[in-house]
Amino acid sequence: MGALLEQVQVVGELLLRMKDCIIIFQKNAELGKVKTRLADSIGDQAAYDAYQRLVKYTHRITSQSPAQKLLFFSSFVEQDLAQYPTTDYRFELQSGDDLGEKMRNAFDQLFKEKFNRILVIGTDCAEITSELISEAFNKLNTHEVVIGPAHDGGYYLLGMQKFIPGLFEGIPWSTDEVSSLTMNYLDSNFISYALLPKLSDVDYEEDWDRFKDKI
Questions:
Q1: Helix or strand run (H / E) with residue 23
Q2: pLDDT of res. 167
Q3: CA distance 180 to 39
Q4: Number of CB atoms found within 10 A of residue 153's CB
Q5: Which PANTHER family match (predicted)?
């Protein structure tokens, strides 16, 4: 019993020393350039306002995690950063030609900085919770990858406990095949992964109507 207790204590200490990171991929909020599919039905200004609410919701949720937050802007690092939490935040610029390359470069950078468990999320999911983020990190204790699949065929969260560049190759981004092809790659390469509940992104008016009074 004493030996078992000692093993549990050692594991607990290792977990406490682990460096966790949440990458937040965020488009710079510019009128007419965010939530364009939503704007087709509700207009540019209303879509811009919706996007701002989604961004604030995302940061409210991630701020509840003790993990380091890396906010990667799409086009430029904003000068006014006062709206973001002041603790555990860093600000970076996405680099790469497409979404896959941008995510790959971000993961590569942070694994080189010796983070142990890394998640990436966007700012489109009004159903993500702090509990789901904690669950994702926990799943990375026993799996190499964790995926939060979205109803549209993409994913709202991807996490890794080691750098797997193949996850970002040969994927037709912004299609309904993203999550299925990602899982096919993991299966064919015998890489262990866990799934979170399937959630919805906010892309269209019916999505926004479902969630606008909840965030």
A1: strand 20-26
A2: 97
A3: 28
A4: 14
A5: GLYCOSYLTRANSFERASE, SLL1095 PROTEIN
Residue 170 CA to chain centroid, in angstroms?
A: 20
For the chain, the domains span 19-211
What per-residue confidence (pLDDT) applies to 8? 37
Helical segments of the chain, H only = 2-17, 36-42, 44-62, 99-112, 130-139, 178-188, 205-211
Q: What is the CATH number of domain 19-211?
A: 3.90.550.10
pTM given for the model: 0.90
What span, in angstroms and rounded, lies between the C-alpha atoms of 99 and 155? 12
Q: Using alpha carbons, list the distances in angstroms from residue 46 to 38, 40, 74, 147, 197.
A: 9, 10, 21, 31, 29
Closest CA to 120 of 190, 33, 58, 56: 58
- The secondary element (H helix, E strand) that includes residue 20 is strand 20-26
Tokens of 39: 């704007």
CA end-to-end distance (rounded Å), the chain:
48
> Stretch 53-68: mean pLDDT, rounded?
96
Other Cβ atoms within 10 Å of 196 Cβ, number: 19
Which of 19, 173, 22, 23 is closest to 93 using CA atoms? 23
